[in-house]
Structure formats: structure tokens, C-alpha cells
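Re: the 143-residue chain
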Amino acid sequence: MKMQSLLYGMAFAVVILAVLLLVLGVNFQRPTSVQGAALYKAADEVTLNGVVDDVQEFDCPVSEGELGSHLILKTTNGLVLVHLAPMRIMSGQNLKFTRGDQIEVIGAKVRIAGKSGVIAREIVRGNEDLVFRDQAGHLLMVQ
């Protein structure tokens, strides 16, 4: 009888927890409002040269709400946030950037959540030519 009461109590606790999560507005779906290809405008393409100042990973609309990889690029005009690709793609392709890398970024200027940045289409690092997106902004390194 004790075991049955324990199971009922646990089931009741799970139901209460689920109701609380729903009432508090927890959303279990990925955000789909803003995505990289929808933000990418070929008319806004720029070419930037600089040095990688920092490498960051954070949830990003450009990466469709996934954990995305980003660079802080130090240029002659200041620091620029460069959106690369979702971490699953970066890891799967074994793509890594480190502080001090000298790179050229070709990508579209964007403004997301009040912050300026660039969505990278192509990055040249030394003899490497890394193409992330096509001319329309769609990821090419899909996994």
C-alpha cells in the first residue's frame, strides 16, 4: 500500500509541475520567427578584414534559435559581431576559429534585437576559403 501511495504522489507531483509550466508560459517549441536566410539580403553584403578578438556561442535567431557560433572581429572601424552557423554544424565540420586569426568576412549587414552585425556567407583565412551560405543566405553546411 505504501508503494502505491508513493506512485500516486509522484504522478500527482508531475501533473502539478506540468500545469505550472504551462501556466507560466514555458514554450517547448523552437522559435521560428526570424531565421538566417530570411535576414540575409545580398544587397547589404560587405567585405570586412580584421582579426578575431573573441569567439562566442549563444542562442541566436540567425541560427534559428539554436546555439550558434559567433566571432567578434576587430576591424579598423571597431568591433563587429559576425554570425557564423549553428554549433552542431561548426562541430560537425570541425570548424574552429581562435583569437588572433586574421580573416576576411563576406556577409550581409543585419540588425537583430537592436544590435548590428554581419551574417557570414564566406570567410577567407590564409589559404582556406570557408563558404557558409549561398548568395541567398541559405546554409550550405547542413547536417
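The longest strand covers residues 45-59.
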